[in-house]
């Protein structure tokens, strides 16, 4: 019973990634590029594969993220923006470096420049 609930939740995460996810890497979040090869921003959550989480913690400093802001579900680790300043800072960097001239989010889904100021 619990396994099927977890599998349903994982399927819902995968649907959200397909429908609403913006693919990001470490540099997009103002982190060391080695921190994350591929993750997804969905609303105010960063979703990474469980296998990518170790480098995000080591190179990106996410080992210091508050326990309540980090949720592991199946093969995904989800970082919640509103519960941790470090996660929020990564979102702020992403939003600040990925806007059009009018201040609105860009339609692009790939950003290759590493912003060391973020």
Give me the secondary-structure category.
alpha+beta
Q: Write out the strand line-up for the largest beta sheet, numbering strands in chain order.
A: 1-2-3-5-4
The biggest beta sheet, please?
5 strands, antiparallel
Q: Give the low-confidence spans.
A: 103-115
Rg measurement, Å: 14 Å
Gross morphology is: globular
Number of strands: 5
The helix content, as a percent range, equals 25-40%
Cα separation of the termini:
44 Å
Give the overall average pLDDT. 87
Q: How do the helices and strands follow one another from N- to C-terminus?
A: HEEEHEEH
Instruction: Classify the beta-strand content into a percent band.
Output: 15-25%
Number of helices: 3
Description:
The model is unreliable at 103-115 (pLDDT under 50). With 118 residues, the chain is α+β, with helices and mostly antiparallel strands. 34% of the residues lie in helices and 18% in strands. A five-stranded antiparallel beta sheet has the order 1-2-3-5-4, covered by helices on one side. The longest helix has 19 residues, at 2-20.
């Amino acid at each position: 019973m619990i396994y099927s609930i977890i599998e349903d939740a994982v399927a819902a995460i995968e649907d959200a990634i397909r429908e609403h996810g913006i693919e990001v890497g470490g540099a997009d979040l103002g982190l060391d590029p080695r921190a994350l090869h591929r993750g997804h921003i969905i609303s105010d959550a960063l979703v990474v594969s469980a296998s990518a989480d170790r480098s995000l913690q080591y190179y990106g400093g996410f080992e210091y993220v508050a326990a309540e802001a980090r949720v592991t579900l199946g093969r995904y680790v989800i970082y919640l923006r509103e519960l941790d300043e470090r996660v929020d800072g990564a979102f702020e960097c992403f939003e600040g470096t990925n806007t059009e001239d009018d201040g609105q989010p860009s339609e692009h889904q790939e950003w290759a420049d590493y912003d060391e100021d973020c």
